[in-house]
Amino acid sequence: MKLMDKIDFIPLIELPTLKGAQSNIVPRGTSFTNTKEWDLYQENELKKNYIDIPRPIATGIYQYRLFDIKVEDLRTIIHPSPLITKNQERITIFCDDNDEPFFPYFSKNKIELDYQTTKKALIILLNQLHFFSEKLESLAVEFKQKNPSFAERKKLAIRSAKKKESFRLESSPQ
Q1: Cα dist. 122→14, 80, 84 in Å?
Q2: Quick one: angle between helices 115-142 and 148-164, nearest 10?
Q3: Mean pLDDT of the chain
Q4: Whole-prediction pTM value?
Q5: Quick check: is 35 in a domain?
Q6: For residue 93, what is the enclosing H or E element?
């Protein structure tokens, strides 16, 4: 058996689409058994949501080359929801999305947090993740596997966070 001389990794993306009433009318079978109709269905769904999406990597497989997606369509793909803003010492999370429920439900689509308290909670979470990574590291030793990079990355992240004392969200004009 001959080994491959060259390997290329190609970043792919599956594109989210907002569904309408007509989206519920889907072709029979699957994209593998009824490729022509499913390809047409997928193309029509994408036209409702995007400006200029390239062809999928293969018929019946609805993954697209990430680097071929134009900036205009990247904006649509990202749907920055919930929107998070920072004003003075307050972080506001606007949870207004018809297609995705947010918790807690009693928030009336808006959650306000104190910046310093949120920052402290985030540092605590990073510490907890660090201790958890050490547990995983001990399992790696038990299973005779090396994985020092995972714990080391967590240590560096925590040190960096404590040094900078930031995790600042950019202030957005209101």
Answers
A1: 31, 21, 16
A2: 160
A3: 78
A4: 0.48
A5: yes
A6: strand 90-94
